[in-house]
Amino acid sequence: MLSSAQAAEAAHILDADRVAPVHYDSWAHFTEGRDDLAAAFTAARLADRLDWGREN
Fold first, then answer.
1. In a domain? residue 56
2. Would you tell me the crossing angle of helices 4-14 and 34-43 to the nearest 10 degrees?
Protein backbone atom coordinates (compact mmCIF):
# COMPACT_ATOMS: atom_id res chain seq x y z
CA MET A 1 0.00 0.00 0.00
CA LEU A 2 1.30 3.45 -0.90
CA SER A 3 1.10 6.49 1.30
CA SER A 4 -0.38 9.63 -0.22
CA ALA A 5 3.10 11.08 -0.74
CA GLN A 6 4.30 7.84 -2.36
CA ALA A 7 1.30 7.84 -4.69
CA ALA A 8 2.08 11.40 -5.77
CA GLU A 9 5.72 10.45 -6.32
CA ALA A 10 4.69 7.42 -8.39
CA ALA A 11 2.38 9.60 -10.50
CA HIS A 12 5.30 11.97 -11.09
CA ILE A 13 7.78 9.19 -11.95
CA LEU A 14 5.29 7.54 -14.31
CA ASP A 15 4.29 10.92 -15.77
CA ALA A 16 0.67 9.84 -15.38
CA ASP A 17 -1.82 12.10 -17.14
CA ARG A 18 -4.62 10.93 -14.87
CA VAL A 19 -4.75 9.20 -11.51
CA ALA A 20 -7.97 7.59 -10.34
CA PRO A 21 -7.64 6.96 -6.60
CA VAL A 22 -9.28 3.79 -5.30
CA HIS A 23 -9.31 2.17 -1.88
CA TYR A 24 -8.37 5.36 -0.05
CA ASP A 25 -11.32 5.43 2.32
CA SER A 26 -13.83 3.33 4.23
CA TRP A 27 -11.54 0.71 5.73
CA ALA A 28 -10.55 0.94 9.40
CA HIS A 29 -6.85 0.19 8.78
CA PHE A 30 -6.36 3.20 6.49
CA THR A 31 -4.40 5.99 8.16
CA GLU A 32 -4.80 8.50 5.33
CA GLY A 33 -7.92 9.52 3.48
CA ARG A 34 -9.07 11.66 0.60
CA ASP A 35 -7.90 14.93 2.18
CA ASP A 36 -4.40 13.56 2.72
CA LEU A 37 -4.22 12.29 -0.84
CA ALA A 38 -5.42 15.61 -2.25
CA ALA A 39 -2.90 17.49 -0.08
CA ALA A 40 -0.01 15.29 -1.21
CA PHE A 41 -0.90 15.75 -4.87
CA THR A 42 -1.32 19.49 -4.34
CA ALA A 43 2.09 19.71 -2.67
CA ALA A 44 3.60 17.82 -5.61
CA ARG A 45 1.80 20.16 -8.04
CA LEU A 46 -0.12 17.21 -9.48
CA ALA A 47 -3.62 17.92 -8.16
CA ASP A 48 -4.95 18.52 -11.67
CA ARG A 49 -4.20 14.89 -12.50
CA LEU A 50 -6.50 13.46 -9.82
CA ASP A 51 -9.72 12.01 -11.18
CA TRP A 52 -12.13 11.26 -8.34
CA GLY A 53 -14.72 9.83 -10.71
CA ARG A 54 -18.36 10.49 -10.09
CA GLU A 55 -18.97 12.64 -7.05
CA ASN A 56 -21.99 11.71 -4.93
1. no
2. 40
